[in-house]
Amino acid sequence: MDDAITLSVGGTAASWIVLLFAGVIDEGNNLVVPLAGISALLAPSFGHWYAGTPFTGWFGLRAAALVPLVMAASSCGECDTSSLSWIALALYAAGTVGDIATTPADVRRHNEERRTLHDLTVAPMIHRGAGGIMLGARF
Q1: How many domains is the chain partitioned into structurally?
Q2: pLDDT tens digits for the chain (139 residues)?
Q3: With contact defined as beta carbons under 8 Å apart, do 80 and 116 qualify?
Q4: How many degrees, rounded to 5, is the angle at CA 64 between CA 58 and CA 44?
Q5: What is the H or E stretch that residue 123 is in?
């Protein structure tokens, strides 16, 4: 579980650090900002990916945050861009916190599913004058 949380929190923090220092890192390449932005969108879900759940509702909420952000960036004449930016930020923050907060429960569920799959044991069995295979299972 600690690995999954580290993936989510570490990936998110690293993405935002790169985004904050993109002007220094990019040096006119213009690839750092889009890649860090994609990483910032995906990184909070890394713990869920670890647990076998690639996309969550929280990821969908972060993706939905792109809609008001794009509307604000398009600077439509009738739109209040500051309100749209705050809406986008709130959606993104809620999706990020939600994804990271639900990671431990998803990992526990995943580990429990794996544990039940691994509770089947096959072993050789040897008796006087006979041999065979013993199959053990836990339910």
Answers
A1: 1
A2: 688 999 999 999 999 998 888 867 766 667 788 888 899 999 999 999 989 888 899 999 999 998 877 777 776 656 566 777 888 889 999 999 999 999 999 999 988 887 765 567 778 878 787 888 877 766 5
A3: no
A4: 35
A5: strand 120-127
- Residue 90: name the closest of 67, 74, 108 by CA: 67
The tokens of 72 are what?
A: 């604000």
Are 1 and 100 in contact, with CB atoms under 8 Å apart? Answer: no
DSSP 120: E
CB of 95 closer than 8 Å to CB of 62: yes
Looking at 21-120, list the stretches that DSSP marks H as alpha helix, in order from N- to C-terminal side: 22-26, 32-42, 46-50, 57-64, 66-73, 81-117
Q: Domain residues for 126?
A: 2-137
